[in-house]
Amino acid sequence: MILNKDTAQKTAELLLQINAIKLEPENHFTWASGWKSPIYCDNRIILSYPTIRNYIREEIAKQVETLYGKPDVIAGVATGAIGIGILVAEYLGLPFIYVRPEAKSHGRQNQIEGQLETDQTVVVIEDLISTGNSSLNAVEALESAGAKVRGMVAIFTYGFDLGIQNFETKNISLHTLSDYTNLIKLAVNSDYINEDQLHTLMEWRKDPSIWKQ
Known about the structure:
Shape: globular
Radius of gyration: 17 Å
Number of domains: 1
Low-confidence stretches: none
């Protein structure tokens, strides 16, 4: 869910500006899942731009406090949200932890890195939401460790129906700074894409799991 429309448009503009989001309707990217896509998002690029990372940090921090109050701990989802999660935690003056996709097979075999006490409240920070599976896996790990997860704030979401359903099923609140709808609106209004490219991007959005160029 989008909390602030102005923030959504500004965030989309900045992500396009630094090529954190790339739109290539005439070509395609291949995601780790094997899906073919005319869009690719790598929000880790934000960390290389101090002014932009500060904007993202502050907007996420504002939403964390507005939506959930100040939690005991901020948690980032590895690996993409570790950097921005640390920045948000620092801005709010809160402890930070991060959650691996699975427990390590060596050492202390941690899945959660950092200090987390039973019954502490946590807000999870994500960089990108697609199906939501990896994000919700982190929530499950935190809850299994005794944390009380208040919700999640992410930079961007594709807004897939499957992702929305997954969060609803798990009863986890999700808000994002921007989303696919705001991105495409901006791209059209700024002539970043033409009508044919828009058609391709909207067709992909209907069912990305089976889309082929």
